[in-house]
């Protein structure tokens, strides 16, 4: 065991604390092996300032979670709840001397076909829930890019969305009920299994998006939809990204595509380096649009093709064949295959009024040109969501510094354009200052008071969301 | 002015209070004329125990609302916020000595076509918002039965839904941002105009469904969707309501109809008394299903017809003609035309697991037979929502008593079947005990603490939702 920040004195009490905690939990639940703890220090934000936890607890039952929180409350030890650790904003980065409480093993999935609902553990992987629903002819829509490895608990904590958000909404729209362990170790059940109800304040809605700061989710009841049909695909190429955004907006005003994605030229260039698809030198952006509307898909696709042409698309492909559609869509995933392993990335996450997206992307390109930094951008234009991805060489400190510099400038631009600095990845540790700067004072004060009500000692995920962590309070 | 509950002594201070309040507000805003006050004592729940307010304030601006709440906080006078007064559960029933704060005049509607959003005052009528959206080729989905007269503020306060809820959700799904005046008269802005964001705790989600107990809404930003196509219609008649529910469930498992409604035989008989449609003596229930899926509607309708036939429908009509569809759907509205003026109604609002709806309706029929009380039932089966309407003769006290007796029994049945006693009309004053009895202790305690945080003196709509009113606290 290694607690780097411990002095000799506190190391003694640290050992005692870990022993006390271990005595409260089944064998093997408390992990202090340095190599394993190391894995849990970081999430995907790879924060260099990540702390070293007192211990990692891999809960196997809700009772384990309760025991950890009772212990943590008694000793006022912070707790960082953790699902799959796929936060890119430091939502589960470890805190020195805290307990990292992993719920990854609480991953059971039970689909109730009649009720069109599923009861799942917070550690269940998003794609596993989708697959379990599909096996019953049903559909669990929330589909973040990280669906293959992110957890439903994390999705609930950050209200995750994805490319299908305009038609299908985000995680919030599918959460019917939650079981949550509060800071004092007590369990509360909020919402329920009913498809709809209005029976008091929406506590479930308050926990969705609360990023582990109000309680630790131990069970999620989600609603499921009828399975959609296999998607038909449109890919439309534009010289000017402003025209591409205009086409996307025209589509969004007429219908709800099952997915609507825009990629800019820098992103296409990265994809082209793998796929050798012969990217036209004039291409500025591509719009991918899909329809899963069954017998209505053909007409939706025809309308989307027409709107793209009207808005100056230079080339438009469409297909009702699923395999062909996947080939046409390959650049969407190829980008990450190229980047992974070759460089580090800051994956940004903003929301803007849809009409401001074009101007914002122009600014992204100007900043990239000025700084020499590679920035490639995905957008879900109907939702106003835009993800500039700033790459850098992790071995080159100057490069990392420039990347974070670009991010800082973008954050200012977003605020100036009336946008929000977190769209669907959450606030985490990274964006607390940025969010606090934009949110109204009254709203921030109310959020702090709600936090204090749920977690008077401030032990729950103290670095995340809006709230001052230990030592930061005046 | 008449304050029925005043003694001579307090009448003096009452007069002073009203004078002080009037001095704070523009002329004509404070109403004390007994005839007009009388109109504001009751909402559609027609609670015989409705109080007499100190005064009615018809706010014309947000400033008026702030002034009222500052005054009310200073004097610890309860405030009952009121939109259109169409609550059937006493959500805006007046309280003795309180201020009834009407926001009906805050009814401006501004549609932003580009942003696919509208900014509306809480007093705007639901149908007016829908019409303003339609004028821009857009769609505001929340569509309660009372859409022609209920207010958006009330819809937000109760998270209203309607027959289109399975496809389009409820009011909550369309609220992007709110301006709210808190109990102390301060203004807070929560959420925003962004189609999606995750920037802190969802305070907007907490105000939705809070029934005026946390603050007074003065502005609502709602998202709008592309306009759907004109609906195609299916009407399928069944001998047995259980078969009708099974057909509806089969439909909901395969697709999302734009509306899905079930009416039972007693409801059809009432409609038939007006429409003389030659109701078959064997008919036990009808399922109305609609598709607004444009080019996909024909296939959706065909599937729905097939599923109804598979589940034993004795007659199935379908039409792609809007006017014919409206004629086929006439029984849905005819019921209310017959009942209004002829009798009083207790319109109940429950949510059940969809699989339990058939059993519940059988119990409704048994209770009606046992008590001799007329009960007719509408359901939105895909959402689990069911509305038994218990009629009675308001002049006959025994009849009213029996109606409320039936309601009490039904409430118990709902709880036993794992349902919720408020689906989409809210809790109001009428259902507080029933809800408190069903909700978990932990959840109720958390709600009370949030209420105390927002409204420490308990002045906001003290008879509504979960919270003990003045004099009820131990």
TrEMBL record, chains A, B:
Keyword Flavoprotein attributed: yes
Obligatory cofactor(s): FAD
Annotated keywords: FAD, Flavoprotein, Oxidoreductase
Highest taxon, organism lineage: Bacteria
Molecular function via GO: FAD binding; oxidoreductase activity
Gene3D superfamilies for the chain: 3.30.465.10, Vanillyl-alcohol Oxidase, Chain A, domain 4
Name of the featured protein: FAD-binding oxidoreductase
The organism of origin for this protein: Nocardia vermiculata
Organism lineage: Bacteria, Bacillati, Actinomycetota, Actinomycetes, Mycobacteriales
């Amino acid at each position: 065991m290694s607690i780097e920040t411990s002095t000799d004195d506190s190391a003694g009490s640290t050992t005692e604390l870990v022993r006390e905690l271990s005595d409260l939990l089944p064998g093997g639940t408390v992990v202090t092996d340095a190599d394993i703890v190391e894995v849990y220090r970081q999430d995907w934000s790879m924060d260099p300032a990540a702390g070293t936890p007192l211990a990692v607890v891999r809960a196997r039952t809700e009772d384990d979670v309760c025991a950890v929180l009772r212990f943590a409350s008694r000793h006022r030890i912070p707790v960082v709840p953790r699902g799959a650790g796929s936060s890119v904003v430091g939502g589960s980065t470890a805190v020195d001397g805290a307990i990292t409480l992993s719920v990854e093993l609480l991953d059971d999935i039970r689909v109730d076909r009649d009720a069109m609902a599923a009861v799942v553990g917070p550690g269940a992987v998003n794609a596993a829930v989708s697959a379990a629903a599909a096996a019953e002819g049903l559909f669990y829509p929330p589909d973040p890019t990280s669906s293959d490895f992110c957890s439903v608990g994390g999705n609930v904590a950050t209200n995750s969305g994805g490319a299908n958000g305009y038609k299908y909404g985000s995680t919030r729209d599918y959460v019917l009920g939650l079981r949550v362990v509060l800071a004092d170790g007590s369990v509360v059940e909020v919402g329920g299994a009913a498809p709809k109800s209005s029976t008091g304040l929406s506590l479930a809605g308050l926990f969705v998006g609360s990023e582990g700061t109000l309680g630790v989710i131990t069970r999620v009841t989600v609603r499921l939809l009828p399975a959609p049909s296999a998607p038909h695909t449109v890919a439309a190429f534009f010289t000017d990204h402003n025209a591409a955004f205009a086409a996307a907006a025209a589509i969004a005003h007429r219908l709800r595509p099952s997915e609507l994605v825009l990629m800019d030229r820098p992103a296409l260039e990265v994809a082209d380096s793998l796929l050798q698809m012969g990217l036209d030198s004039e291409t500025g952006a591509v719009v991918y649009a899909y329809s899963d509307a069954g017998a209505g898909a053909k007409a939706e696709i025809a309308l989307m093709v027409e709107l793209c042409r009207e808005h100056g698309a230079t080339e438009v492909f469409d297909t009702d064949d699923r395999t062909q559609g996947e080939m046409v869509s390959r650049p969407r995933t190829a980008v990450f295959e190229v980047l992974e392993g070759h460089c580090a990335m800051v994956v940004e996450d903003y929301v803007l009024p849809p009409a401001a997206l074009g101007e914002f992307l122009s600014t992204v390109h100007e900043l990239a040109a000025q700084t020499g930094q590679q920035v490639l951008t995905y957008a879900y234009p109907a939702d106003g969501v835009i993800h500039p991805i700033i790459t850098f060489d992790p071995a080159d400190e100057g490069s990392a510094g420039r990347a974070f510099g670009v991010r800082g400038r973008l954050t200012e631009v977003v605020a100036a354009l009336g946008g929000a600095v977190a769209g669907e990845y959450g606030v985490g540790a990274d964006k607390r200052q940025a969010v606090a700067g934009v949110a109204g004072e009254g709203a921030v004060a109310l959020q702090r008071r709600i936090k204090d009500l749920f977690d008077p000692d401030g032990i729950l995920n103290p670095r995340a969301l809006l709230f001052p962590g230990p030592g930061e309070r005046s």
